[in-house]
């Protein structure tokens, strides 16, 4: 038999085919060997990766009947109705398999919605789970029925379902790697009646890290619509719907190019980026001001490992896996993390010219805080950390930013650190140890998702890089294990801005505020005076000062021509004080000396 698997799903298709083929088509071999064939299979992978399509293609090639169970269709608010609907589906599957002698797949889509863990379930959900377990156990051993459950959250399923005799075998669908994405794109592009000769598919594939099959289909459709608009829009003022109804595409050769995909990439968000990833506008050093020293250190930590990789390897030098930003509150730690996300993409792209794309964008930016991590349920916090790192690897280059790191992990030397923080710390240490920072160009690296048992090809190029950035106001509360080599091994102190930095910050802030700066008038803003009067002000304090001055100017003149002058700043200084005391500054300087 010649098997035709869907593009990018070859391994999962082969495994599912075998698990269904032998029990249903050659069940007599199990009888002869006195073996019980598997009655259930759990199919899991990210949303849109092709789980349902995989079942349909296996059933089609083996000429099997598929009975579908969708949680949205069988669940009912009425007592006992959902259990009844479930039983009817199982009865139908057994009837077809026995009376008509047709091997049958009973496919339960989004099984986690039907059978969530009973630890977190209501009484109603618990009854449904019990009914499903009873029905699974009731499938007669020699019947031609195999149950296939599909989910993108395997750890959310009640553990009793994953025992032998139920969903005892599992098939994990990998996120498509570079070769798989190329195959999927070829498949969809061939079905489009457009000219793609001038399309650089390798460049396109480099820009679709983290995209699953459904994402790539949506990407091709969006690019195709853009190409259609681009081709005919100059000749027609019709909207998209009218364009499709009235334009005869058979008379024109539509060319699909990278510009169409540039547009589509800004519209179609891959499934892997829809959770936890922030839509980050590019932030540059010039947008902030006063961070010249920090800029040099960051560029050294990011650019050198990419630009001088072989030299560093020959010298036995390792680039930092993580960067810890510490200093007083309001001194631009979060802003620097966003700049790092922007700069990281630029350096990765310029270093990897053969595989990097010019389709633009910044690194995927994952912002994590203690409020997002901690959960009252045992194991949830650790699972969240593992999930963040897994997603970051998938959509790399990426930056994971842990804000207020000290509140997330604590320190094992502190008696106030609770058990959850200790488990989170242990998980974070393991994940950071698993980040490969200098992959060989000829080596394949794999990461196994602990949550989903999914083997992810990291494509062994620098585009799979993950950089971890932490920020804290209390570096003395950080566990010492996190500061060892291979973890947060680059420590950057962001002090209160000095005189020159304050002057530069004020100048940067006033770019976007109508003011008398450089207007050579009696109320001209004097940056030297303001920089002198804002001693011990943090960057956030200076922002507040500018905002207060703008409000004072607005109260003075409510017209659109209102401008901020020196008098407004003098008045604002009576309202806005420095938020950082001298004692705090001495504390941070002492910590800096110890580090």
Automatic annotation (TrEMBL):
PROSITE patterns: AAA. Residues 37-177, 319-498 form the AAA+ ATPase domain. This is AAA+ ATPase domain-containing protein. Belongs to the AAA ATPase family. InterPro entries: AAA+_ATPase, AAA_ATPase_domain, AAA_lid_3, ATPase_AAA_core, ATPase_AAA_CS, P-loop_NTPase. Pfam families: AAA, AAA_lid_3. Keywords: ATP-binding, Coiled coil, Nucleotide-binding. Gene3D superfamilies: 1.10.8.60, P-loop containing nucleotide triphosphate hydrolases. GO terms for molecular function: ATP binding; ATP hydrolysis activity. SMART domains: AAA. It comes from Smittium angustum.
């Amino acid at each position: 038999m010649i098997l035709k698997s869907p593009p990018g799903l070859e391994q999962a298709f082969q495994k599912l085919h075998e698990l269904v083929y032998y029990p249903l088509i050659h069940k007599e071999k199990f009888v002869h060997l006195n073996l019980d064939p598997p009655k259930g299979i759990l199919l899991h992978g990210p949303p849109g990766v092709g789980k349902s399509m995989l079942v349909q293609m296996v059933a089609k090639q083996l000429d099997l009947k598929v009975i579908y169970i969708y949680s949205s269709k069988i669940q009912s608010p009425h007592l006992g109705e959902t259990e009844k609907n479930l039983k009817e589906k199982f009865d139908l599957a057994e009837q077809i398999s026995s009376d008509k002698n047709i091997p049958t797949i009973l496919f339960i889509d989004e099984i986690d919605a039907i059978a969530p863990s009973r630890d977190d379930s209501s009484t109603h959900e618990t009854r449904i789970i019990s009914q499903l377990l009873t029905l699974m156990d009731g499938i007669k051993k020699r019947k031609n029925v195999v149950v296939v459950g599909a989910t993108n959250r395997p750890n959310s399923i009640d553990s009793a379902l994953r025992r032998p005799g139920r969903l005892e075998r599992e098939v994990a669908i990998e996120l498509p790697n570079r070769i798989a994405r190329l195959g999927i794109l070829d498949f969809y592009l061939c079905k489009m009646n457009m000219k793609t000769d001038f399309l650089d598919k390798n460049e396109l594939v480099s820009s679709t890290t983290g995209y699953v099959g459904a994402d790539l289909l949506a990407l091709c459709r969006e690019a195709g619509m853009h190409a259609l608009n681009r081709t005919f829009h100059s000749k027609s003022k019709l909207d998209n719907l009218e364009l499709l109804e009235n334009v005869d595409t058979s008379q024109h050769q539509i060319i699909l190019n990278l510009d169409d995909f540039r547009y589509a990439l800004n519209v179609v968000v891959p499934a892997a980026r829809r959770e936890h990833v922030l839509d980050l506008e590019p932030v540059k050093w010039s947008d902030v001001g006063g961070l010249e020293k920090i800029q040099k250190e960051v560029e050294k930590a990011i650019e050198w490992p990419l630009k001088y990789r072989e030299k560093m390897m020959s010298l036995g030098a390792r680039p930092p896996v993580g960067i810890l930003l510490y200093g007083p509150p309001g001194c631009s730690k979060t802003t620097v993390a966003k700049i790092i996300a922007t700069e990281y993409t630029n350096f990765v792209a310029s270093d990897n010219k053969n595989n990097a794309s010019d389709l633009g964008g910044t690194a995927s930016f994952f912002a994590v805080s203690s409020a997002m991590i901690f959960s009252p349920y045992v194991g949830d916090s650790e699972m969240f950390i593992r999930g963040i790192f897994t997603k970051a690897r998938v959509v790399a280059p990426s930056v994971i930013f842990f804000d207020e790191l000290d509140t997330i992990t604590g320190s094992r030397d502190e008696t106030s650190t609770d058990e959850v923080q200790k488990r989170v710390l242990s998980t974070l240490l393991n994940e950071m140890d698993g980040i490969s920072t200098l992959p060989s160009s000829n080596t394949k690296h794999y990461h196994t998702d602990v949550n989903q048992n999914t083997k992810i090809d990291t494509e062994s190029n620098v585009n799979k890089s993950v950089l971890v950035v932490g920020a804290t106001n209390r570096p003395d509360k950080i566990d010492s294990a996190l500061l060892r080599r291979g973890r947060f091994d680059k420590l950057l102190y962001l002090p209160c801005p000095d005189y020159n930095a304050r002057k530069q910050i004020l100048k940067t802030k006033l770019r976007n505020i109508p003011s008398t700066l450089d207007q050579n008038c009696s109320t001209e803003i004097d940056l030297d005076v303001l920089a002198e009067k804002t001693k011990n002000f943090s960057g956030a304090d200076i922002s507040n000062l500018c905002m207060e001055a703008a409000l004072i100017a607005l109260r003075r003149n409510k017209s659109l021509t209102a401008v901020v002058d020196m008098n407004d700043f003098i008045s604002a200084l009576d309202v806005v004080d420095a938020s950082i005391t001298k004692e705090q500054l001495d504390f941070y300087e002492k910590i800096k000396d110890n580090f």
